C-alpha cells in the first residue's frame, strides 16, 4: 500500500515539473533570444519588432574601399508596408570591432573638410508619423547624434545596441525651404537587436 502511494506522489511531482516546464516555454520572452528582434524605447515608450529584422555587414576595408558598412533594417507593416520602420546605415573607416562604441562624427577642419569620419545614420517611421513624413532621422552633421555597438557578429546573425536622437524629418513633398524639417519634439531612441544576416 505504501509503495502505491509513493508511486502516486512521484507521478504527481513529475506531472507538476512537466507542466511548469511547458508553462515557461509557452510564452518565451524576448530575452530568451529564440527569434530575431529589435526592442527599443522611444521617449520612454517600449516598442518591439519580432519579424522583418535583417542586418548586413560588408567586408573589411581594403585598397579599393576604405570603410566597412553595417546596416540594420526593420520592414514596415500595416500602413507603412513597403517602407522601413527602422533603418540604421553606418559607415566606419576602420574594421568593425565588437563591443566598441561607434558614434556619428562631424568635425570639419579649418578648411571645412570633414574627411573620413564615422557616419551613423538612423531613420524611424511609425504609422502615426507616416501621416506627415517619409521618415524621421538624426542630424548627420551633429557629432554624437547616433551610436551603435555590435556585441556579437557571426555569419548568420548580428547582435548589438543603438541609441540616437531623431530631431529631423523628411517631408513627402518639397517646399520653398526644402523637404527637411526640425521636429518640435525630438525622438530619443535606445534599443537592442538580434538580426539575421542578409
Description:
By secondary structure, this protein is mostly beta strands. The protein is 15% helix and 47% strand. It contains 2 helices and 11 strands, in the order αβββββββαββββ.
Task: Annotate the secondary structure layout.
Layout (H helix, E strand, L loop, with lengths): L1 H25 L10 E6 L2 E5 L3 E5 L10 E8 L8 E9 L8 E3 L15 E6 L2 H4 L4 E4 L7 E8 L3 E19 L2 E20 L1
Parallel strand pairs: 3-11
Antiparallel strand pairs: 1-2, 1-11, 3-4, 4-5, 5-7, 6-9, 7-8, 8-10, 9-10, 10-11
Q: Main traits of this protein?
A:
198 residues, mainly beta, 7-stranded mixed barrel, 2 helices, globular, disordered N terminus
* Total helical elements: 2
What's the SSE pattern?
HEEEEEEEHEEEE
Largest sheet: 7 strands, mixed, barrel
Distance between the termini: 63 Å
Described by the principal axes of the CA atoms, the overall outline is: globular
Mean pLDDT: 85
Counting helices, strands and paired strands, the structural category is: mainly beta
Give Rg in angstroms: 23 Å
Count all strands and give the number: 11
Poorly predicted regions are 1-33
Portion in strands: over 45%
Amino acid at each position: 500500500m505504501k509503495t502505491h502511494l509513493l508511486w502516486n506522489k512521484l507521478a504527481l511531482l513529475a506531472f507538476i515539473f512537466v507542466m511548469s516546464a511547458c508553462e515557461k516555454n509557452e510564452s518565451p520572452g524576448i530575452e530568451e533570444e529564440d527569434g530575431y528582434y529589435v526592442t527599443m524605447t522611444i521617449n520612454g515608450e517600449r516598442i518591439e519588432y519580432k519579424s522583418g529584422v535583417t542586418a548586413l555587414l560588408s567586408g573589411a576595408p581594403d585598397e579599393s574601399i576604405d570603410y566597412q558598412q553595417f546596416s540594420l533594417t526593420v520592414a514596415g507593416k500595416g500602413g507603412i508596408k513597403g517602407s522601413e520602420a527602422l533603418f540604421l546605415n553606418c559607415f566606419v573607416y576602420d574594421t568593425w570591432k565588437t563591443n566598441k562604441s561607434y558614434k556619428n562624427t562631424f568635425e570639419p577642419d579649418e578648411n571645412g573638410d570633414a574627411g573620413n569620419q564615422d557616419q551613423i545614420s538612423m531613420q524611424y517611421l511609425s504609422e502615426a508619423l507616416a501621416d506627415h513624413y517619409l521618415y524621421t532621422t538624426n542630424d548627420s552633421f551633429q557629432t554624437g547624434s547616433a551610436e551603435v555597438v555590435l556585441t556579437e557578429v557571426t555569419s548568420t546573425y548580428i547582435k548589438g545596441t543603438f541609441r540616437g536622437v531623431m530631431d529631423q524629418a523628411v517631408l513627402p513633398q518639397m517646399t520653398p525651404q526644402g523637404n527637411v524639417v526640425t521636429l518640435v519634439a525630438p525622438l530619443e531612441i535606445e534599443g537592442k537587436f538580434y538580426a539575421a544576416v542578409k
